[in-house]
Design brief:
Number of strands: 10
Radius of gyration: 21 Å
Strand order of the largest sheet: 3-2-1-4-5-10-9-6-7-8
Order of helices and strands: EHEHEHEHEEHEHEHEHE
Helix content: 25-40%
Distance between the termini: 22 Å
Shape: globular
Length: 289
């Protein structure tokens, strides 16, 4: 597994969590620092740019050394490797995620603006990464169940499987939460269906949403009989209800896109809301393309 480090307090907090996650999984941890290339064009035939050429190597490796010390303190005995890669963090971490089981990042980086709740690198990796992304945020040392945001979409099946595996790994209960309201699906189907249509038959819709929740978790519940599962169906505002539920969870898991996702939208509004506002770490899991 990998953790992105830029020297910020947020990224060092992510190192602590990543180290404990690596120990939990019995996996090695790779600490990655992406060092951006200079913005000026590089002449053709010039040697590859590196931090050493600009006298920056001591600073870069100082950050990595501090991160490694934090990792060893958080999880003594885990295997740790350092990696410094010249390039933009967005592209570097996306490439690194191809060979990782889990990527971990802090919610804010050194370049974050004061009013920005989540760094652009984390948003990009959640939408484009090749492995699940855990963003460390919220209260310190969160406890409680693993919270699964159930949306019933085919793309969300990977999130369901990940959440059950996490609950089993942590020996924690799982809360499968599906939030619905009368805007959850459209009243009519067909080309003439107005986008503003709502479902008036709430009893029928409630039954349909309950079936959706049951169907989403039944196969994994059979595969993980040791995990205690609470199926929770709530009629309310979706994003605010899920965010509030994270106050008592140790981890929330969501798919990158939900049922209402547009074709070109790689990161859904629910997962974005959780990444920005959850009270515990958030793992976004991309489904199969």
């Amino acid at each position: 597994m990998i953790v992105g480090v830029d020297g910020s307090a947020s990224s060092l907090d992510a190192v602590d969590v990543a180290a404990r996650e690596a120990r939990l999984r019995g996996a090695p941890l790779r600490i990655v620092h992406a060092f951006g290339r200079p913005s000026a064009p590089v002449p053709s035939g010039a040697p590859p740019w590196s931090p050493a050429d600009h006298g920056l190597e001591p600073m870069v490796h100082g950050r990595l050394a501090e991160a490694e010390r934090r990792a060893h303190a958080a999880a003594p005995g885990i295997e740790i490797a350092r990696s410094v890669v010249a390039g933009e963090a967005l592209q570097v971490l996306e490439i690194e995620s191809r060979s990782a089981a889990l990527a971990v990042m802090g919610s804010r980086g050194l370049s974050g603006f004061s009013g920005l709740l989540l760094g652009s690198t984390a948003v990009h990796l959640a939408a484009h990464g090749h492995c699940p992304l855990m963003v460390v945020r919220g209260r310190p040392d969160p406890a409680g169940p693993v919270l699964l945001a159930v949306d019933g979409s085919p793309a969300g099946e990977a999130a369901v499987e990940f959440a059950f595996a996490e609950a089993a790994l942590r020996e924690a209960p799982l809360v499968a939460l599906h939030v619905w309201n009368t805007w959850s699906e459209r009243a009519y189907e067909g080309p003439g269906d107005p986008l503003t249509a709502v479902v008036a038959d709430t009893d029928r819709l409630r039954e349909a949403e309950q079936r959706l929740l049951d169907q989403a978790v039944v196969s994994c519940q059979e595969a993980y009989p040791q995990v205690a599962v609470e199926r929770r169906l709530v009629r309310s505002r979706i994003r605010s209800t899920l965010i509030d539920a994270t106050r008592s969870a140790q981890l929330v898991v969501a798919g990158a896109r939900g049922r209402g996702g547009f074709t070109g939208l790689l990161l859904g509004s629910v997962s974005q809301a959780l990444l920005h506002h959850a009270h515990c770490p958030v793992t976004v899991v991309r489904g199969k393309e």
